[in-house]
Design goal:
Chain lengths: ~350, ~600
Amino acid sequence: MRFIHFSDLRLGYNAESGRRWEQERSQEISGTLKKIIKRAEETSCELILISGELFSHQPVTAELEEVNRLFLSVPGTEIVIVSGRSDRIRRNSPVRSFSWAPNVHFEISDGPVKYRFPRLGAVVYGMSMYEHSGKGTDELADFIKEDGDELLIKLATIWEPSREKAKEAFSGMDISYAALGGVNSRLDVVPQRICYPGGAEPVSMSDGGPHGIIEGEISAASGRVIRLEFVPMASVTYMPLAVNINKCTTESELRELICAEIEKRGTSNIYRLRLFGARNPDVSFELSAVTEKYRIAEIIDETEPQYDFGALYEEHPYDLLGYYISRLRKQKRELSELDKKAMYYGIDALLRTSGREEQRA
Amino acid sequence: MRIDRIHIDGFGRLRGLDLKLSEGMNIIYGRNEAGKSTLHAFLLAMLFGIEEKPGRLGQEAVLERYRNWYEPEVYGGELWLSHEGRIYRLCRNFNKGGKDLRILDEADTEIRDPEKLLSELLLSLSSSVYSSTASIGQLKSATGRNMARELKKYIIGLNTTGSFDMDAEAAVRYLSLKKESLEKRYETEATREYASVIGRIKNLESELEQPENENRLGYLHDRQSDTDQKLREAEQRHKELKEREENAGEILKEQGFADRTSIDRAEEDIIKAHEDHVRRHRQAKSLVPSVISGILLVGALLLSAAAFYFNKLPSAVFFALIGASVLLLAGAIAAAAVKRSRQKRAEAVEKELGERILPYLGSSEISENLLLDIHERMEGYRRLYQTRMDALEEGKRTAEEIIELSREQAEGRDDIEKQQAVNREVEEKLLLLNSLRNRASELRMIISDNKRIKNDMDAIDMAVENIEELSHEVRSSLGAYINEEAGRILSKVTAGAYRRLSVSDDMQISVETRERSIPIEDLSMGTMDQVYLALRLSALRLVEGGRDGELPVLFDDSFTLYDDERLRGALSFISGYYKGQILIFTCQKREETVLRELGAAFSSVDMSA
């Protein structure tokens, strides 16, 4: 039996709220679901397990309908859904009165549930997160233990962010595969048996690494997993990009460097730019051309203007600038970040407004 | 240090120029366009080198500006300097770079560390300090008012920053502008909006938690189908009952049975009729009349026979016999008639009875079991009647049930509608909740941006504070000194006409004569020039730091606006005041003339020669 396992897609999560590409990103995430279904179709997948947080919030009817339409397009694939924390079922959830396509199985109840698929020779035990319910993985585990079923392929699915708990509950159990959700990156609790696929799409800068789905095959004869692989699906990656600046770096050089790096690593990825080093104090980095073109979530400027204080002091021994520098030098304590910033601002202002150029030849 | 000789290989418009200078006062005469400023620039370039990198604020490299016009590769020259009894030859080839430097001593040996030596010779002054003190131009402004403004700017600058070109006020203004542009990016409302958005989110969440928002639509639909089903069944039952009742009613109506008593009566009638029939039948069957009739007939016959047999009969007897036989005959006929009528009657009754039972038994045949059959039939009708009554009764109950269920159905529809409305509201709220959450995370970003901006603004505030504080310091130490010294110089230069320079706390500048205080705006241009001269000389004294006269002072067209008297005063003062070498660049002959009149020692060179 061929199956796909994914979780934490978090449809509707607007991670890029307020940014220029927020709409695009939402659409990309919806697009990933389409990709997954398409892949299911192409690989004649027989069962899809969605182990939690398909939605990032209580889905409304329109959202359910959209997803249902997609599921309808693969009528030959059974789809089992459980809810996670963000999309947990509550008393007021619209999902309670939603009628799904016949191949979709999303039980709205508080407690473990069993789905039988004799055609596939498989039984799936699952449990959704239900508000205020104290029930957890233990209840599902007990339920599975007490249930006897002659079908050979046994699967469990639940959203359980604690890998220890998952391990405790499922490692001794006689099941073919435990499809878990709730951990952001790909993780195996027991390889090929108890696995987290990780979030199908990354949602923040801390979500590095590849994101996608698990695809696998379980032998109908032995009930064991005979193939399990990770298929990257995410359309973007969050990437940190550190750029070292020195005294000679000009604004246009920096721009070109950043553009080149981004073109190389992927223009649809989302970057956090960190500039560090000592820059020429006369140069300021105006990077709006770059931020307009690419997806730059943040620019952290850790550069410091490279003033040659010794030379400056020599040039201005008797005037305000000299006083400024000598006073700073006299400071016994370490300069705080604020002090340093104030100093750079002050020196920059004094130098820029001085009329020395007129005195030169 | 003293400049003894200048040789230019190539610099700007000058080429192959050789000038000798002496100690003390030197007049360097050159007509306009002769290249005085180029010479001045050359001296500064030779003493301090030329900046190779692009200047601040994107100026083109100064190095290119002075490249020799005629032979670009010939770019540089030599200065012979004497210092503490020694003579040094300073050579620069600007082709090799703006800082190319060689110094040779009297024996033509290259000094090992020329930069160090040169720095010593220059009292460690940098080019900018030298330019703003020992190299004295003139106020650039053409009109009196602008001149006053310029002069004021210099005085204040000098007072507050210790230098002519540093402008504390301008720096502070620049910083304020920067702060303003930061303020524009600062979203002041963000924190407040964030708090309100979070509040709204919490409210919405708790609203959604209310029990009336529970989504019972599934349950309500199930319940409604149940009710629908029950109602359908009830209606079906009712229909059946009605049919049954009607059918029974029809049958009973056909037979004319409106109620139970009518059935009873009908049966009674039939029983009676039957009894009647039986009686009459028996009666009819009775042989008695026949027997009587027969006897009578026989009698009649006998009598009549006797009458006719016995011929001698008295007529009376004869007639009696005949009469008797007639009577007997009549009697026989009567008896026969009775029987006949009895028979007829019995037949009629039988027929009637037959007719009576026909509707019930389907035939008018009168059988032995007639009464039993009739009774069975009547019982049947009675049962039917009961059935009808039962059906009516049940029908009533069913009708009530239907009313009840219909009400439930209508209520159920209402409930469903209400629940759908609630669900719609809940969905709207969920959408709103989601958009609020998005806004909240947007605001969080803005708030952290704000923090960074605030940080920068605080740094700017601090910088402004620092600058203002320091300028006060500068003012109180340097400012006071400069004003005093400048006042002393001014007094000498103007031969006591103007004695003091004062700068008030609010930067009002005035000079004092013996009688009164004159604001600087009210001075003549010539006087302002003198004040400027006094300032430069006092600044120079400051930077020399006690080593008076060790640097050559350059006056570049400084006295063009001076009238003769002032010129005399200035030159006389300078030659007495300054111990070191003085180079006066001029395109006039006046300075020479005045110096000669003063009897002051000086030498002059002509650039064009």
